[in-house]
Amino acid sequence: MNFIKLLPVILSMLLLGAHFFRYGNIELVILSAALLPLLIVRKPWVIHLFQTVLVLGGIEWIRTLVVLSKMRQAAGAPWMRMAVILGIVAALTICSAFVFRFKSLRERYRLIQK
After folding, report:
1. CB 72 within 8 A of CB 86
2. What residue spans define the domains of the chain?
3. 99-102 CB contacts, 8 Å cutoff, 24+ apart
4. Do 69 and 79 form a contact (C-beta atoms < 8 A)?
5. Within 13 Å, how many C-alpha atoms sit on residue 89's CB side?
């Protein structure tokens, strides 16, 4: 059941990896993929690491939204749909950090005792 609760985190990390791959940042692609196996480690620092990465990832999506919107507006191309989609992706990435509020996940990562 915890795997299902962690799916938003996994999908957000994979999307971030794809985003970095699209822009040729191989180091961050590798980092995004390399962090996923850490979800197996049952330590409190794992939660803090993923929450930080997910919030930073959401900020990266917002930065991308702003940059691409300005470029499309300057070119006279449609931009609103792209902005809505990237805004939703940014919000979901940031909200993925909150899955660790589930009691079962806090117990798994030893933030609280059973």
Report:
1. no
2. 2-108
3. 99/5, 99/6, 99/8, 99/9, 100/47, 100/50, 100/51, 102/5
4. yes
5. 22
What is the spatial distance between Cα 113 and Cα 106, in angstroms, rounded to a whole number? 9
Owner of token pair 């994979």: 14
Record the pTM.
0.92
The tens digit of pLDDT for each residue in 5-46 reads 999 999 999 999 999 999 999 999 999 999 999 999 999 999
How far apart CA 98 and CA 106 sit, in angstroms, is 11
Coil, helix or strand for 24? coil
Tokens of 104: 């079962």
Where helices occur in the chain by DSSP H, the ranges are 2-22, 26-35, 44-75, 80-96, 103-108
The closest of 9, 47, 17, 54 to 34, measured between CA atoms, is 17
Written as one letter, the residue type at 5 is K
* pLDDT score for 112: 80
- The sign of the torsion formed by the CA atoms of 34, 35, 39, 41 equals positive
62 Cα distance to chain centroid: 12
